[in-house]
Amino acid sequence: MGKVRVPLFRTVRGMRDFLPEEAELMKYIENKAREIAQLYRYREVITPVVESYELLAAKAGEEIRSRMYTFRDLGGRMVALRPEFTASLARLVSNKLRNKPKPLRLFCVGSLYRYDEPQRGRFREFWQSNYELVGSDKPEADAEIIMLTNSLMNATGLKNCVFKVGHIGVLREILNEENLKEKVQNEIMQLLDKKQYDDAIKRVKSDGASRKCVIALKQLMKVKESGVFETVKRMERQVRGFERAESAVKNLYEILELVLESQKIDVIVEAGFARGLEYYTGMVFEVYVPQMDTALCGGGRYDRLIELFGGEPTAAVGIAHGLDRITLAMQKQKTWTKAPRENTVIIIPVKEEMKKEALKISQKLRSKNLQVESEVMGRKVAKALGDADKRRISYAVIVGEKELKDGAVILRDLKRRKQQKVKIEKITETIEAANQKT
C-alpha cells in the first residue's frame, strides 16, 4: 500500500498565523497601548468575543452589519463575533456599571471579526485597543481622546501622523432641521464615509430637502485643508441659519483649541467627513500616515448609544486603534527595532551525566530574572554554541564535570568571544558586570 497522504491545512481566508517576530511586534504595540491606558487612568475590562446579534447590529451601520460573522448557537439564539468594541462597552455601562461614579475611563484590547475582502492592512480577524470616556459631554473629554491617541502614536515611534477631524453633529443637525428620517440620515452618512459626495447630495434631494439644505451641504463638502481654525470658521459661515449646526461647529472649535494648545498635533479638518458607524453624534476623527491610505485609528463622540441599550442618557466618546495597521505602519517607517537581549542565556551540559545539574542551574538563573533556555537537542558543545550565536543569545553556561567539582561553570560571552570560569553563585553578578562595560 502506498503512503497515506495527509492534507496540508492552511489558515481560513482572512485569518493569520503570527510567527514569533510578528507576535513580538504585535505584543510590543499592545503593551504600549496598556501603558498609555495607565498613564491616562483608563481601567481595563474584558468583554466576550461572542455577543447578541441584536446588540452588535443595533447601530453598527449597514456596511458592518452585512459583514458580521453571525450564527445560531445550540440554544437557538442569534449571536455574532464582535466586529468592534463600543457596543459591548455600552452594554457593560448600561448594565453592570450603571451606578458607578462618572466619568468612567475604560480600556480593552483584543481580536475582532468582519467578513471583509482581505488585502494589505485589512483582515477578517484583526486586533484593536479601545478607549472609552463615559459620562462627560464637555469638549475636554473629546480633546483627551485625541491627545491620548497622539500619545500612543508617539510611544510607537510613528512619524508624520495626520489627524483628520470632522463633526457628525454639524451634518446631522442640518438634516434634522429638514426633518429627514434617521434611516435616510444613516444612508447619507454611509455615502459620505465612502466619499460618494454626489450620491449623498442626490439622496438628500430625493427626500425633499430644501434648496438651502442642499447648498449648505454642498459647500460643507468643499471645506477642508485650509488651516485648522480657518476651516472651522468657513464651516461656521456655511451653516448660518441652522442654529443647532452652528452650535456643533462651536463645539468643534472648542475641542480643537484645547487639543492644539496642549500638544503638537498635525490636524486637518474636513467638514464633510463621516464615519460608517451609525452611533456617532459629535466630533469624529481618524489618523493616517503618508505611507498608507487606510486609517490607523478611528473614533468619536456617541451620546445616545448607552441609552439605546437600556441605560440612563449618558454622554460618551471613544477611540479604536488598529494594532494590525499600526504594526504595518511601523514596518513601513522602519521604526521597529528589536530590544537588545542583554541577559539571554543558554545552559549546555558537556555530557549526558551533567543534564540534571544543568537544569538546576537554569532554574537558579531564572529565579534571578534571567532569560534562560536549556540545550535539549543532545548537541555537542561546539554545535550548540554555534546555534546559540546564530539566534543572538548573549551568554552560554557550559556545565562540565571538572568545573562542577569546584562549584563552577564556564561562562562564555558570545558577543565578545570571551569565556571564563565562574562560581555558580556568581553567574548573574558576572553577567551584570559585563553588561555595564558596554
Structure description:
There is one protein chain. The protein is an alpha+beta fold and 438 residues long. It has two domains: 20-333, 2-Layer Sandwich (BirA Bifunctional Protein, domain 2); 344-436, Rossmann fold (3-Layer(aba) Sandwich). It has helices spanning 20-39, 53-57, 62-65, 86-94, 139-155, 168-177, 182-193, 197-206, 211-221, 228-238, 243-262, 305-308, 323-333, 355-367, 381-390, 401-404, 427-436, and strands at 43-44, 50-52, 70-72, 78-81, 104-113, 125-134, 162-167, 266-269, 283-288, 297-301, 316-322, 344-349, 371-374, 395-399, 408-413, 418-423. Strands 1-5-6-11-10-9-7-8 form an eight-stranded mixed β-sheet, with helices on both faces. The model has no long low-confidence stretch (mean pLDDT 92).
Task: Give a summary of the structure in a few sentences.
This protein is an alpha+beta fold. Helices cover 41% and strands 20% of the residues. The chain has 2 domains: 20-333, 2-Layer Sandwich (BirA Bifunctional Protein, domain 2), CATH 3.30.930.10; 344-436, Anticodon-binding domain (Rossmann fold, 3-Layer(aba) Sandwich).
